[in-house]
Fold these 2 entries.
Entry 1:
Amino acid sequence: MKALVPVKRVIDYNVKVRVKADGSGVDLANVKMSMNPFDEIAVEEAIRLKEAGKVDEIVAVSIGVKQAQETLRTALAMGADRAILVVATDDVHADIEPLAVAKILKAIVDEEQPGLVLCGKQAIDNDMNATGQMLSALLGWSQATFASEVDVEGNSAKITREVDGGLQTISVKMPAIVTVDLRLNEPRYASLPNIMKAKKKPLDEKSAADYGVDVSPRLEVVKTEEPAQRAAGITVGSVDELIEKLKEAGAV
Amino acid sequence: MDFNLSEDHQLLSNTLNRFLGDNYDIEKRNEAGFTAPYHLQDMWNGLAELGVIGALVSEEKGGFGGSAEDISVVFEELGRSLCVEPMLGTLLALRVLSDHGQDERVEQIISGESRAALAVYEPNMSCDLSAMEATAVEQDGVWRLNGRKSAIYGAPGSDFVVVAAKTESGTGLFFLENPVLICAAMVDGGGVADLVMENTAAECLALDAETSLTSALDLGRIALCAEAVGAMSALQDLTVDYLKQRKQFGTTLSSFQALQHRAVNMQIEIEQCRSIVISAVGQFGQPGGERNVSMAKNLIGRAGRLMSEESIQLHGGIGMTWEYPGAHFAKRLVMIDHQLGDQNDHAMRLIATGAKQLVD
């Protein structure tokens, strides 16, 4: 079985995000970019499935700017077998919307015929949490979102999902789309020998037009602003005073 | 000119940054750095598994890199995390061992199976190899070493030490298994040792290895300079963050123009240091490349001290407390100046090589 893993190039999770002065978006000039952490978990899970003999080939896909090639090289250095880069824009500040991404992914799925699509539950830049679900709808495949455990057995997969208030275990028919959550696994580090091997792995470059998908935005960003500053705390002298203050604040 | 890292180096840098960021916080580092054997074995194994030790040696000699650029990428990240693992000693030993066909030993070191250090310096010696006093004499088919070696970086807990000693043919290299060492922590953490040799039997690797030794030491200096650039960047980030948070006279320190100017001067120093390291890396192995190394080591020595002092000054008292990471970065930067020749030694070396060029 082939596994397809879409990965997104996003602002590194350690970077302190700054909003552009005109509020039109986030400043990405000279900012470190990395693979979306949830996608990294998806790559790791695909590698583990391959190591367990349940997956034969891992294909990583990235849709966005040409620089996303670096993100794909990371996936290849971790253990993916080959990669497809779909250049959909030249502007590093442009975010390809989930529907367009899902349409391109559908075209790739039609071409590659994977048995499993493993993707992050959401990207940490826009927090949309939509691509996996949209892809599932377009393909008419089963979907299992927020996976914290994946167990593929023949024509079905048992997936444990992280839902409000607990865990839910479902069984889905293959082929399926699985969107992964934070606690599924701990992604491995790309070792230097694997980084060198990754150079020799194939990376195909395509464009959105190759798949006949219109990537022009349907949403308009009206305003971007920094979260409100946290107010300074106060020290209270006793439990009674604490309760009183909480009552004043309407918290209890 | 493109000063950006190549894709491979970027990936290596990211891997190391993440590995050290996830596993090597300042408390863990301080505990390891000041307690024998002055490093963490599981971290060392982790670095070996990632291929970081292999990055110090070329592919044809069993490693995965070995260029001055590979080494500077690794050490810059080590500096950023203030890593006390014995990478400098390992780099020096690996380079001379790989130059003298010790493939099996090189392989063992790269895999993390064994660890080595290089003993060059002596109590009465600066960075000039001709002042070396330790001797090696062959008696009845056995090489015997006499003399004292000091400042053997990364030696505590190592499986063997490669010793440089004077022979009739020049500066030779000798292999000493399970050496008896006098170990200590450096003032900034990390292990260092002295070695006293009295008719100590050793295996001869080379009778005249001065070229190989000089090249290994110069690579060590480039490594230290790159480490300093990483440490300076991290210290600058800490300082600027502090200035933006700390309030005095009802406003943040960062709003005072005098302090902004000092922070900018620190940033300029870092950029100068980064540039001179790039120059030393680019010229390494070229005729006259040792001049660039000495220029870099001299500038880094001066800039490191300035960065340490400015950072403590801008922080105030907290900047030199044990609990604050900035103090340990400051100590490391001051210590880097003294390793493998300080700013004065390298100014002298620069003058000497310049004079030699004029005569030639």
Entry 2:
Amino acid sequence: MIDTFLYQALIYLAAAVICVPVAKRLGMGSVLGYLAAGIVIGPSGLGFIGQEGRDIMHFAEFGVVMMLFLVGLELEPAHFWNMRRRIVGLGGLQLAATSCVLGSGLYAIGFNWQAAVAAGIALSMSSTAMVLQNLKEKGLSTTAAGRSAFGVLLFQDIAVIPLLALLPFLALNRASVPTANHGGMSAGLPGWLQACTVLCAITAVVAMGRYVIVPLLRIVARAGLRELCVAGSLLIVIATACLMKLVGLSPALGAFLAGVVLANSEFRHELESDIEPFKGLLLGLFFIAVGASINSSLIAERPLLEFGLVAAIIAAKALVLAVAGRIFKLSFDQNSIFAVSLSQVGEFAFVLFAFMGTLGILPGEWIDILMAATALSMAVTPVLLLAQECLILPRFGTRQTDERPGDRVDVTNAVIIAGFSAFGSTVGRFLRANGVEATILDNDSDQVELLRKMGFRVYYGDATRLDMLHSAGAADAAILIIAIDDPATNCTLAEIARKHFPHLTVMSRARNNFGAYALMENGVDLVYRECLDASVRLGIDALVKLGFRRYSATRAGQKFIIYDEAALHKLARHRHDEKAYIYTTRQEIQLQEELLSNDRTAAHGINDHAWESDCCPRDQ
Amino acid sequence: MENILLMLAHPRYEKSLSNKALIEAARQLPCVMVHDLYELYPDFNINVEHEHALLLQHGIIIWQYPLYMYSPPAILKQWMDLVLEHGWAHGAGGRNLENKLLLNAVTTGGSGDSYGPQGFNRYRLEVLLRPLEQTARLCRMVWLPVFTVQGTFLLGPEQLNRYGLLYRRALQRLSMRDFDPAGIRNHAFLNEWIESGEQRCAHD
Ligand SMILES: Cc1cc2nc3c(=O)[nH]c(=O)nc-3n(C[C@H](O)[C@H](O)[C@H](O)COP(=O)(O)O)c2cc1C
């Protein structure tokens, strides 16, 4: 048992590790790499894996569930609302029109109308997993095309539930088939009761997200164990999936819903970074399984039918998408990216076809053919995108990667603040008062909870973790403000930031000179000593109380800061040599005092004769 | 009795002799409020609402400053730029300063003679102050002849004391509205006007 598991893991991992980098090298993207790996190790390739590929696919479908959870996490309700036009308008149009076109095509080649409708709908689904991955790798997620694609995919993913519920009505012989809730606990209940359970389950997910999961995560976070957090995150996804399965809904949808509910919580980035690697691995597995499941003997038997079908489906889908994109005013380049990237048939089609098989809507032979076509179409998309990128876009249009700045809702913040105790929160409040929203990370869950109650958008998580920084958007941010209480942690973070995000402007707080030196050694030039400004301000006020003019005292204070900052940089060079350090320090202090007192004692009045004539003073 | 807002703009007041003499004399008048700009706004961050409120409470405004590079010290310009807003001090609806008296009290290193076509400083002081005068006009204020203390480096304590007394007398008369608005404009400097009045008193 263990042996076969290890053996299989070996094959899958090796295939992925070899094929994906090669595919990326060739500029094809990771999805194509995984598919290729699947084909190579599958029954039609080297034959390392056989029929169990189908089981693996089932398991790997969980990657899709996780992906939808993450998609949900990225999608706060407000954001969702902002996109309603894209989701419902564009998504609805695409689904309806594509189903009609493909359905009538199938009807024309001899399907009965029920089968034509059902298969048409299934084929009009696109692959969320593949498209999002492709868009992200090409950096197109925030373009008009990327966002429109996202809207369409979201609509399709949501539409799967009612579709699963409606399919049984298309069955030829309704009495003999199970209901939509295949295997669910509510199977066999009257319709209205089923609707009730579905509603209850959805309410449960929403309520649990708010009142059970977040407090639970707080407790877990307080325990301070990294792996426990990961376990908690996985538990959430799996529990939701189970609950949905129980009532007979799509687990992916439940996960998506849970994600949306948690999108507003402080654990958003933490969950994201915990689930991300699992999702990545499982999706990879999923694509490998898709590759392996391509039934080459079927294709070999009737190559013309199979390839013709794939070509026709892709062409029809792309055409409909292009028209829909036009209607929604996408520019030429954006529209072509949009249309091509969504032109494949997606993973939900597998689910729908399998269900149609059990319902007897489609004959088994056709189901195999269409499933093969689905897998093939997925394999073709990356190639098409590549061709488009190299051949079409350079020739036509202007390859716009960014839209006008006005409606970037989903772009990450330009500023990340790590550490939100007194220091960080002052910076944060100041920035916010000036209309700059920052992404804030803090790893004290009590503090986070408190700040959230006070209305700050703070996320829980350890900022020194690379994956945490990634999900906080460090790759796209401009400034990282390091304001953690512990000086050593600040240094670690500075080092990580410099190594992995060299484009970031790092600004850091330092407790004292030695903290500042350590940061400077880690390449941080913008160092702010906590004690400096406040102490000088106090000093200024003390001088005023002693009778100094406030303006002069203020100027002296400002100069003092400048001299001190300059001295800091000089002293940093000698920090490891105690003798030289002490010597330089003394020199610097003396110099500062001289400079400041020069200014204070200068008698400006003695030059007043200068306004009389340019010769020497009259006898004075 | 009209209230006087005496705005002082001196970046090195701790070392001042002339301006200090004037301020100390003026302080003795209860109707004078000394408003020390550099002390209040060391970082030039002027509180515009507060300044507006002060202006509304006073009928006579004085800008007192040492002449630095032929102009008032920087904070006074900052004050003008921020406080004399369009729509408040001038322009449509900006009639809040209408008919207030504006006096400039200026101390200069150069003597009175050096300010003139033949002198070292080439221009008469009132010519150098034209931008301020026009600003006052824009805000519908009444521009008074300048009060001056010139050749400051030649002045001993006694002379400074005399300038102080003269200044106080001037402020007193302005505050009592004890002057002929047309006649006062015939004098190049307010010093002349008050001295001529003094002489008249002595003659009586
Ligand atoms: C930076 C600076 C610039 C000056 N510019 C002028 C000038 O342009 N014309 C002039 O007559 N005196 C000029 N002076 C001399 C001052 O006007 C003079 O020191 C001041 O009026 C004396 O007044 P106090 O004793 O109150 O400081 C200048 C003085 C300084 C320090």
